[in-house]
Amino acid sequence: MFIHASQKKGRILSARTVYSGHIFEVIQQTIDTPDGLRVERDLIKHAPAVAMLALTPDDQVLINREYRVGINTESFALPAGLMDPGEDPLKAAKRELEEETGYVTDDITEMCAIRSSEGMTDEVVHLMLVHIDPAKRTPKHFDQDEFVTSQLVPLNEVIAAVKSGKIASAQSVGAISYYEAFVKGDRA
C-alpha cells in the first residue's frame, strides 16, 4: 500500500543555525535524501503546539479573536498555544485553555496531530477535543505579549465561517474538519 512508504531518513551532511528567535530557529542544511539527491534546505525548527476545539454540551464552540502578525490583523481561530518543554499535549491544552480563555476542564482527548508545512518546518500541532461547562471559569492570565477575546459561537456558524474563509488558520480548519468527519457522528 502506497501510504505505508518506508521511513528512511535523509542523511544530514551539514546544518548551520542562521537565526534563533523566541519560538523558532532557521537552520540551513545540506542533506543526502533517501532517493539519492543532495539538496540544500532551510528548516524552521519550531516548538510543538496544541489547538483546542472546545465544545459546550449544546454544541457551541469557543472561538478566539487575536491580532496575528503573519496577516497583520485580527484573526478568528480556536484557542491554541505553544507547549512548554517536556509538557504533554493534554497538560498543555488544559493550561493554554485556562490562560487564554478562563475555561477549565478535565475532559480533553487528542483527535490527531498535524503538520502545517513539512517542506520547511518541523512544527507539529496536536488537535485536542475539549468539553467545557460555560459556568466553570477562572480568571484569564495572558502571556505578557498577548491579548485574546473569546466567545462561544454555535457550531453551525463556525462551520460556515470555515467554509467562507473567515476562519482560515490551518489548525482550526483541521480540528473542525476532523471533528465533523470522524468524531461528531460517533456521538450520535
Structure report:
- The protein is α+β, with helices and mostly antiparallel strands and 188 residues long.
- It has two domains: 7-45, no CATH class; 48-187, Nucleoside Triphosphate Pyrophosphohydrolase.
- The chain is 22% helix and 38% strand.
- It contains three helices and ten strands; from the N terminus they run E-E-E-E-E-E-E-H-E-E-E-H-H.
- A four-stranded mixed sheet has the order 7-4-9-8, with helices on both faces.
- A hairpin with a 3-residue loop joins strand 1 and strand 2.
- The model has no long low-confidence stretch (mean pLDDT 93).
List the helices and strands and how they pair.
Blueprint: E1 11-20, E2 24-32, E3 38-46, E4 49-55, E5 60-68, E6 73-77, E7 80-82, H1 89-101, E8 108-114, E9 125-131, E10 149-154, H2 155-164, H3 170-187
Parallel strand pairs: 4-9
Antiparallel strand pairs: 1-2, 2-3, 4-7, 5-6, 5-10, 8-9
GO molecular function: hydrolase activity
InterPro entries: NUDIX_hydrolase-like_dom_sf, NUDIX_hydrolase_CS, NUDIX_hydrolase_dom
Enzyme class: hydrolase
> What's the main sheet like?
4 strands, mixed
CATH class of the largest domain: Alpha Beta
**Helicity level, as a percent range?**
10-25%
How many DSSP E strands? 10
What's the CATH architecture of the largest domain? Alpha-Beta Complex
User: Which fold name fills CATH's third level, the topology of the largest domain?
Assistant: Nucleoside Triphosphate Pyrophosphohydrolase
Any idea what the radius of gyration is?
Answer: 19 Å
Q: What number of structural domains do the residues give? A: 2
How are strands sequenced across the largest beta sheet? Answer: 7-4-9-8
N- and C-termini, Cα separation: 32 Å
Can you tell me the CATH superfamily of the largest domain? Nucleoside Triphosphate Pyrophosphohydrolase
Write down the secondary-structure element order. Answer: EEEEEEEHEEEHH
Q: Quick one: overall form?
A: globular
Mean pLDDT: 93
Q: Tell me the structural class.
A: alpha+beta
Determine the number of helices (DSSP H or I, runs of at least 4 residues).
Answer: 3
Which consecutive residue ranges, at least 5 long each, have pLDDT under 50? none
Tell me the β content: 35-45%
Cofactor: Mg(2+)
EC number: 3.6.-.-
Protein name: NUDIX hydrolase
Keywords: Hydrolase
